[in-house]
Design brief:
4 strands, mainly alpha, 557 residues, 5% strand
């Protein structure tokens, strides 16, 4: 657990929780260390069980059963545990060794107990812990082959009633429900292990159906329910391998399951059952999938299943047929098809589909930018520069943004026709700039385009005539400072004035940056004394803002 720092704790907890956690260092007790985890009890309003884990790729995570921690927050109790672990970092390896020794000692002690002593111990735990009793009752029913009792117990474990508030399982209760549901998965897996895989198949399918019926009533932000669904799917597959059920019946169930919408919970892939299905079952899968797709060519599940089967068979034309039956209006599906054809070594067909996609986009729809980029890239690599310009021009005309302008410029420069294209593009942008309401949404694109072209004088004229966003005025001042220092200075002073009335380190950073730019303008104008007077007045008026004063000192202001 040496892979985190105090800075990590600050980031995860936030300033307030971190500072409150520092007050709880003396409240950390019963610290235990394992491989990649630390647990402890932290005493506050109640005694809370706290655990820190360090895993790849998630990094440092934590769980606490306090109300704030149960909502998924990195609470003050987790901070206290983390700080305690850092303070005791040199002793942690020894504590981990002692923890392992305690486990080994416990195992040796249990191994030395007689049958009667073990029974007495288990009975004691059953009497004290309801959850232990329920798990063992389920194991007992499974062992004696009481399928009806096992089914009843599994239904109880998957029922959300005891966790739901007003019909919904909140985030704070979802983890406990997920752990309970996992017991049902273990019980079904035990059926296969004890020689009853056919029963495991039946019960796992019922459990999947029950989970799918309640998943919308559970806050599964942590994905625990999805993990339970995936575990159920694995149990079902293992049971099928053991029982070897009828291939055609299995095929029908698999297709029905994928098309039912439950597949997003279990992630079952029918092709994982290839050994179970055999040729007869796989033929049934393909037949049923084709029938379902023909009945609903736009259904997501139907398309997914057909595409999955076609790709597995290496049938590119069938993959294309699935996509071609439900083409998106913006040409994005044409792009999918083009990429499939590229992967299959058919670049000519790919280009034709991409061109068809651009051609079929209606005048009221903006083509998918991915399709535009793909087609221009293909044209450029084939030295069809003017065709690339035509595509970029059409895209810019329909969607006049700085990015579209930059892409048009790149294509036109490659075709050596940027001067003419730029003139046409600026005519459109000037027309837009004349509609002054665009200034409210970040300023006219015209100014951004002229700034990007480094046409500072034209950008300044456009900003003066049409108005500009403060972001654009700042960029203008920065770009014009060497040639128009007096104009730039006025912009900096105007932008700085409202910041003097605000607080916060981010504000102080912005104000300091503006002051540095003002100092440079005065230096260029030969008026350093004017800046010194301005700065002195500002410091006098802002002297209570200690962080600002410190920042100004650091920058020699």
């Amino acid at each position: 657990m040496g892979g985190f720092t105090e800075a990590d704790l600050r980031v995860l907890a936030g300033r307030r929780s971190f500072e409150r956690g520092e007050d709880y260092l003396d409240a950390v007790t019963a610290l235990e260390v394992g491989d990649g985890w630390i647990t402890a009890t932290v005493h506050g309003t109640d005694a809370y069980e706290v655990e820190l884990s360090l895993d790849e790729p998630e990094g440092l995570t934590g769980e606490c059963d306090c109300p704030y921690g149960m909502e998924g927050n990195f609470c003050k109790h987790l901070v206290a545990l983390g700080l305690t672990a850092l303070a005791r970092s040199e002793s942690l390896p020894g504590e981990r060794t002692r923890a392992r020794s305690r486990v080994q000692d416990l195992d040796a002690w249990l191994a030395a107990l007689s049958r009667d002593e073990l029974l007495a111990l288990v009975r004691e735990q059953i009497a004290e812990d309801r959850q232990v009793r329920r798990r063992l009752e389920l194991r007992a029913a499974s062992a004696r082959g009481d399928l009806a009792e096992v089914r009843t117990r599994i239904r109880e474990l998957l029922d959300i009633g005891s966790f739901a508030r007003y019909g919904y399982v909140e985030y704070a209760d979802a983890r406990a429900y997920g752990k309970q549901a996992s017991q049902a998965v273990s019980a079904i897996a035990a059926l296969t292990a004890t020689g009853r895989p056919a029963d495991a198949i039946s019960l796992s399918r019922e459990a999947m159906q029950m989970l799918s019926e309640v998943q919308d009533a559970i806050d599964d932000s942590d994905g625990l329910l999805t993990e339970v669904g995936a575990a159920l799917a694995a149990v079902h597959l293992d049971a099928c391998h053991a029982a070897r059920p009828d291939p055609e019946e299995t095929a029908r169930w698999l297709v029905g399951h994928v098309l039912s919408g439950s597949d997003d919970l279990t992630g079952i892939d029918p092709l994982d059952y290839e050994d179970v299905l055999g040729d007869r079952g796989l033929a049934g899968i393909r037949k049923l999938a084709l029938e379902a797709w023909r009945s609903n060519r736009t259904g997501w599940a139907e398309k997914y299943l057909m595409e999955r089967l076609a790709k597995a068979a290496g049938d590119v034309d069938s993959v294309i047929a699935v996509h071609a039956a439900d083409l998106a209006r913006d040409g994005s599906t044409h792009l999918v098809i083009a990429r499939e054809l590229d992967a299959a070594g058919r670049p000519g067909d790919a280009l034709r589909w991409a061109e068809r996609g651009i051609g079929e986009v209606s005048d009221t729809t903006t083509p998918a930018i991915g399709l535009v980029d793909y087609l221009c890239d293909r044209y450029t690599r084939s030295d069809r520069f003017f065709d690339a310009v035509a595509v970029r021009r059409a895209h810019f005309t329909a969607h006049r943004s700085l990015a579209a302008y930059q892409q048009l410029r790149t294509a036109a420069q490659a075709a050596d026709c940027w001067e003419a294209e730029r003139g046409q593009a600026l005519v459109l942008l000037r027309a837009d700039a004349a509609q002054r309401e665009r200034v409210r949404y970040g300023g006219p694109v015209l100014i951004d385009a002229l700034l990007d072209d480094k046409d500072t004088d034209a950008a300044w004229q456009a900003a003066t005539a049409s108005g500009a966003h403060d972001r654009q005025w700042l960029a203008l001042a920065d770009q014009a400072r060497t040639t128009r220092p007096a104009d730039a200075l006025r912009v900096y002073q105007r932008l700085a004035e409202p910041l003097e009335k605000e607080t916060g380190n981010a504000v102080y950073q912005r104000l300091t940056s503006l002051l540095l730019s003002m100092r440079d303008c005065h230096r260029r104008l030969g008026t350093p004394d004017d800046f010194a007077a301005y700065l002195a007045a500002l410091r006098a008026g802002q002297k209570r803002k200690r962080n600002l004063m410190r920042l100004l000192d650091q920058h020699g202001l």
